[in-house]
Amino acid sequence: MSTLDLDKLRGQWARQTRRIDDSLVLDLDTVRARLQRKVVTTFAWHRRRRLAGLVIGGGVLVALLAFMAGHWQQGQWLALAALLLPLLLAELVIDVREWLALRRLDLTAPVMQVRQVLHRLRWRRLRLAKGYLLLSLLLWWPFVLVLFKGLFGVDLLQHLPASVFWVNLVVGVAFIPVAWLVAWALDRRFGHSPGWQRFLDDSAGMTWRRASDAVAEQASFEAAASDGSLSEAASFDALPEAIHAHLRALRRHLLLGIIGCAALIVVFGLFNASHGGQPRFIIAATGLLWCALAHMVVQILNRQALSRLDGGVIGLRERLQAMIALRRRFALATVALSPFMALLAALVVAKVLGMDLTVVLPAAAQIGAGGLALVASAVLWHCIRHDPQAFAPRLIDAVSLGFIGRARGLLATLQRERE
Amino acid sequence: MQARASDTVTDDQQTAFLAALDRHKALLYKVVNAYCRRREDRSDLIQDMVLELWRAWPGYDARAAVSTWMYRIAVNVAISAFRGERRRIRDALPIEDFGMDLVAADRIMDSESDDLRALHQLISRLDAVNRALILLYMEGYGQQEIADMLGISASNVATRVSRIKQRLQRDHAASETSP
Fold it and tell me: Please, which of A3, A377, B42, B127 could form a disulfide with B36 given CB 3.0 to 4.6 Å?
């Protein structure tokens, strides 16, 4: 077994550098012409984007302050607008600091110093996104009220019962610790997952978008290097058109799923706006809304993973397997919770049809239905735990909106192409 | 803040910059090669490096070694690309149209001894900062110079180099014994 003596290899390294220097041809006239063109470098692009954000954010701030000045005597409107102010100010402060930091960024500085600056920028942006997430249910209602009042002069407070406001306030406040816990658990579970990091970056509206790509590329490269299959990994570009077509079809399929979930979210949001004054309905519709949201997030993650072309065949195969596993887990959880979801859906649909099941059905029937759902969920959960792999594959595929079957089909095609 | 090179640099300075770039183009190639695998990414990254070097050129202090200055910028740009903090350069050209042909250099890399090829492969498994560190070490920079470029202490450099050597040794042994 040979050893790798770095000190000895330094001589070879220097000779290699000289040979590369000799072989690399640099057409100075072409580079000169290139330098003379106004080229937007990537950091300059970052700064422009931040500047655009600042202009838009500044405009919104001015509009909000004007709204507050115009409703100075109306305590409730002033309070509603004031609720939105801290988040907007935080956004602006972060935009300004980011823009200044990027303007001052000196790439001739030591590497760790540059890393610290960029890391701080990303961290601040993610913290703001977390703030948005935690306060989203609390602040969406004041936002809608102020927006309608400011833009169209419509006073929704006059048109909706006061209970709508109070229920949204209570649910919004209660949501903060729940969302914090969920975010903490997800971060603990997926903290090191490139897909999760990418999702966080996208959620934060970051321009640091390629982070997870690079990490994933690195991971797949390492995997490929360690099993000696770099040549296979590098052969992604040489994949037959059939695979690319399959990938495109799968992405389209996921996009349709995302649009479907988004439509459901809008429908439940509208339902909440109409019946939000009654806690039983807002809780039911919010439960369904979160279910749709969770499925939408998973589909977005899947689609992002499929949009990446790094890692070659091996990377694609690994991503597909990871996606199938994730979708299976989600589908199994959805099936286990489906009896409860069915109850919530029945409540919402009946209300849309003009019937309040909590009034129509006697208390005993309601308790019975709840108990039945509990037992059904427990039985389903037990069956799933007993043998998760064999549990109703067709049902699980259907709950994943056909994704699992299609992804497996693509995996099989990849395998055939390899052979 | 760096001045905009295109606004302030004279023709003579531009010629000096291009001459420096021409003298040290292998340096850019090696850094790019350590951080990127895909051809189009390498092409983007090399153009980004050249443009950032060009932007920073007015601030270059001629008393310092140009290769050290170039290394520092190239590594900063490469790590940013590696960590995804830079988006793909908007109007990147095919590398051939940029006036640089990487194919010949790729051939040299491929034709090197097994140990050197293995080393390049093992380096690409390191994290971004350690990768820069070992590149600088292999280029023959001293501990203090590497420390200044990376912004860590010289003793930290020594510790890291020692650990990286052990890791490379271990990985190399593992890759040799694996079927």
Answer: B42
